[in-house]
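TL;DR need structure tokens for one chain.
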Amino acid sequence: MTLTGSEISSQPGTWVRALELAADAGRLLAAPGERVLLFGCGTSEFVADAIAELRERAGLGETHAAYASELPPGRSYDRVVAISRSGTTTEVLEALAGYEGRAHRVLITGTPDSPAGRLAEDVLLLDFADESSVVQTRFPTSVLILARAAFGEDVAGLPARCAEVLSVPLPVDVARVEHFVYLGRGWTRGLAAEAALKIREAAQAWAESYPALDYRHGPVAVAGPGSMVWIFGPAAPDLVRDIAGTGAQLVHSTDDALLQLVLAQRLAVALAAHRGLDPDHPRHLTRSVVLQNGAPA
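>> reply
TL;DR here they are.
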């Protein structure tokens, strides 16, 4: 088994440990009534987007998400939450430094005593979910299940169900798909983006993600018999009909969207194996992006 595959398989255990931090996460992430910004880079931004949607849906207050390199200008926040597995990403460090004295700064990370941690007033440490692989899998899902618990969702049964998802058949034959599309709405929009990123990182394949109902506003034009379209969350019947009309393989399930993301991670590793690639060593990527001269202005 690859290192990435091993870390995918470890998720039931990391989810159990993440849920033990629910009280701390509630104190640092829920903050009822506060205006909150979450930010990160790559996978961490997709997680930030999902958490922002979840926090607002829980009625806890106005919540925004942004790329660390593209912070909303001219807006004030009570609390900013950076997500960075390594705590070393240049753009995250610069964003945290920029909010000194302007907002309460929180870091969610997998690495203790990191440069980002030294810039935050509070650190939510998930070191048990840290990864050796470049491709993130168990860290983002552990953060997401923890956030959902912090916002009052009953997710206690998900670790056991995750163990089951690790052994079910994949929903498509990767040898018959050349184009992968992931769709989501609300908080699952971030999960769809993350699933597509796994395909690009691990298997160097053509993968896209879109808000589900926006898919028909142009992108559906390239769908065909070699495409797979995976819908996270509820699927509008007319959207399902239109996707079927393209000849694409449709994947949709009533399972919790976080469980579907784990299945999508497995699919990315299987596709890498089919293409003769090593997901543990993705092309052009490193575990953390550290710019020698800082991020450009």
